[in-house]
# Entry
Amino acid sequence: MPNLVSLSFFVGDINIPNTGQPAVGSRVTEYINKYEPECLLKLFGYPLYKVFGSEASQRMTDLLNGVEYVDYEGYTQKWKGLVHDTTQSLIAYYIFHHWLKDSHTQVVGMGTTSVNKADGSVVVLPIERLVSTWNSFSEEAHECLSFLWNQVDVYGDRLYPEMSSFQFNKSWNFSYSMNTFGL
# Structure
């Protein structure tokens, strides 16, 4: 399955500078290739992940691009889609979270350490940015899970039966919001 996000998604709140430089662009592309499938697999579970990558249908198009739908209680809801506004995606928030976490530390002979700046600048812990980015991912992931669980056809049957109640709970807990205390 081709990637849904690209270097163009890492702007604004999740800006990664200098992605036009080959070394930076290559590193971010490696993160996209690693963390996009991981994100989708953890969010969807294997059965839906497999179908999403192979099925060309309206329900998969709606999952990707967003759609208005009527939930179980009869209320109209709006799912933004996995990719929306051409540069926004819950997947990009997930990837950026991992990029930021990994960019702040490096492995040395005795373990891991914070990246030090030789120019005398101050190293700032990225915890608030990590939490903010994760919570943006969490909010959109929970909207996605609500869409997957609540969208029904005219007969009242769920359109995404691959999302079991077990997988829904597992995905909800995986994408739970966090605070600066790790709680």
About this structure: Residues 153 and 159 are 6 Å apart (CA to CA). The longest strand covers residues 67-70.
